[in-house]
Amino acid sequence: MLRTHNCGALRKEDIGEEVLLAGWVNRRRDHGGVIFIDLRDRWGLTQLVINSNQPEIYQSANAVKSEFVLQVKGIVRARPEGLANLKLPTGEIEVAVSEVKILSESKPLPFEIEEKNETDESLRLHYRYLDLRRTRMQKNLILRHQVCQSVRRYLSERQFIEVETPFLTKSTPEGARDFLVPSRLSEGNFYALPQSPQLFKQILMIAGYDRYFQIAKCFRDEDLRADRQPEFSQVDIEMSFVEREDIFELIETMMKKLFYEVLGIQLETPFPRMSYDEAMNCYGCDKPDLRISCTIDDLSLLLEDKIEVGSKSDSWNGLFLQEWKGFSRKKADLLSQMAKNAGVSLSYIKFAKEEGTSPLKNKISEQAWSKIIEKYPFQEDSLLLMAWGERPKVLTFLGNLRINLGEELNLIQNQFKFCWILDFPLFEWNAEENRWDSMHHPFTAPRLDQLDQLNIDPSQVKAQAYDIVLNGFEIGGGSIRIHRSDLQEKIFQLLNLSEGEIQQKFGYFIEALQYGCPPHGGIALGLDRIMMLMSGESSIRETMAFPKTQKGTCLMSGAPSPVSDDQLMVLGIQLREKKEPKAIKEDS
After folding, report:
1. Per-residue pLDDT at 581
2. pTM for this structure?
3. Most CB atoms within 10 A, among 61, 70, 83, 339?
C-alpha cells in the first residue's frame, strides 16, 4: 500500500506514530525555513511540516505546487499550542515529514479548486475531473451513494428484487423523443434507448416476480433545463396485487427512513394529498410548493356581475399576502405589465391605516367590497392581488407569481414539504393532431367506476395515477396499471392507434397480457431531482458526476461528435448535406 492512513483519519491518539500518506497538494505555504503543505484526499486534509534543516526534503517540497500528487512519510505530532484548527477533524495534529515523493505533477490550474472561488459552469464542465475534486461536489456524490444504498437496503428488506432491464429496446411512444441506435446486423432498423423500463417492469409482474426495483438509467431526447438531463436515473418500483394505498405507504416509509438515515431529518407522515383539480385551482400548477403558505382563492362568486372592468371574465382569483411593506405603485405597474404579458388583468387591494385602498374600489359594489374585506385578515401592509380573465391563464399566472413572490418576500420556509397529487385526467386533448393523448402514459388504468365514460366522454375519466411532489418539484410519478388486454387495446384505440400500429409497437405486450396478468402498480422516483433537493442545489447537474450542458453536450469529452464515413457505411446511413446559410445583403 502507498499509504497507512487517509488524509482525514489522524487524531491526537495517533501522536508519535510513523505514517505513510498520499494525496493531492491542496495548499503550500512557505514561512521562511518552514514549509506547510495541506495534503488532501476525499476523506479530508492533513497538515504536513517540512523544515529547512532537512535540505533534500525541503528542496523537494519547495518544488511542489497545487494539485501535485505526493506520497509522504512522517511522524504524527501535536500542533503547537494555540495553533490547533478545531474546524478540521485533523486540526489538532500535523505530520513532521521525513520523506517526500512526488508521484505526479500538475499543470497550472484553469481555476482554483478551493470552495470560495465561483467558476463559470462551462469551464467547470470542461475540466470536470478538477471540478469533481471540490469538497462540494464530493459531498454531493457521497450523499448520492448514501441515498442509493439506503434505498437498496429498504427495498431488499421488503422482499423486492433488483432486476436490470435492457438499454437497447424498441421505440415506443412515451411522451418524449427517443434516442435511436442504428442496428448493424439489421440494416435500416433501429433500437431505442429506454425512456423508462415501463413495459419491462410490467412484464416482470406478468412473469410472477411480484416486487421489482431498479435504479435505472433512462434517456429522453427533450429540451433541457436545470432539473432535466438527456440521461437521468430513477428509482423504478413495481408491485403485484396492490392498491394505491399500498404504494403510498411504501414510499412514505422509504422517504422517512431515507431522510433520517442520510440527513438526520424526521419527516411527518402521512404526506398531504390533494386532487389534480384542487392543486390547479389553489396553486396554479400540479406540483405545488407547500413551503409557501398563501394559496389562490376563487373570488368569482363575490365579484361576478358586481364589478365593471370592461370585458367579461370567466374567472376572478386572488392571492392574499399577509404583509408586503415594500409594495409601491411602481411595483404595481410592473406586476400589471407581467399580467398583461400573460394574457390576464391584475389589480390589488392594499391595506394601510386600517383602511383598504384599490384602483378598483369605485368599480366594485359596496356589498362585494365588504365581503372581500371580511374574507381576509387584513392588517397593516396586507395586500390582496386580484387577477381576472380566462381561467387557465389566470391560474397559471397567479401560480407563477406565487412562487416568484415567495422567493422575493422570503415566504419560503426552510424545510421539506411533500404531497401527493391524485385523480389526474386520464387523457388530454391534442388540438394540433385532433386526438386524445395520455396524460401520463397509455398503460395507466382508468378509475374502475368510470369505465363507461370511455365511450361517452373520455375527458371526464380520471386516472389511477399519482405524483409525489417535494418543494415544488415533481420527484416521482406512477399509477395502477391496466392488467386486462381488452382494456389496454381500448385505450390504444382511443389514442387513435390503428390495429396495425398497436401490433407493430405493442404486440408483444398485448400478447403477454393474455397469459394471466396480476393487478399491479408502481412508481418511478427521479433520483437526480431528489438529490438536488436533499443537497440544497439548484440544478441536478451538481449531483451528477458527468452531466451534459443545456444543449446536451459533454464539454469534457466533446460528445456528441462526428463519426467517420466508414462507420456510417457499415450502418447503412448517409447524412444529408448541410445547407449553407444564405448571404445577407446589406443596404447600400
Report:
1. 53
2. 0.92
3. 61
